[in-house]
Amino acid sequence: MNLQQKYWNSVAETKNFPTPFQIDIFSDYVGKNKKILDVGCGYGRVLNELYQAGFKELYGVDFSSGMIARGKRLYPELNLVVNEDGKLPFDNNSFDAVLLIAVLTCMAEGSDQQRLMREIIRVLKPGGILYINDYLLNSDDRNIKRYEEFSEKYGTYGVFELPEGAVVRHHTRDYLGDLLKDFEEIVFEEVMYTTMNGNTSNGCYFMGKLNRIK
User: Which of 3, 161, 172, 198 has the most CB within a 10 Å radius?
Assistant: First the structure.
């Protein structure tokens, strides 16, 4: 178990994730009969929102066994599994849509993000939908100070450590555009989010259609 897993297991019963899911926009492109996977689902709060709206084919994976245990207790109707491997435990072309809610921010290494994106592309059906909420770089003194403090340690400007031990990352729009190059952009909107620790941060939500022929 790595340090990130230990951290998320340690806060699994207390952390709540506030970034809003744009369910109205998502529903315009994904029908309620479609099969949906939430990667890094945490305790299943977005999947539960979809379930309450009438979506039924809902699956979630997370590397935190504590988060999954909480989700199974809160929402027993959801299909939630622990996945500690980098490979998603599903067949090729299995899903009509994949959610990635504040997950890239928890991955400091670009190579890990790229590997995850390849797995998402593998399990998505051609023409499938990817929905992302995540965080963008900020320009205030507090954030600049911590970006600069940890840039040498992690080799990437925008990666920093939280006081409680988690390592997180804020991104540029250009970087995300390159990471998501296999998707035809449907929407990309910059917004302001409240973080899990009650601060504010620049963020975005993205929805795109897989245009790679597999």
Answer: 161
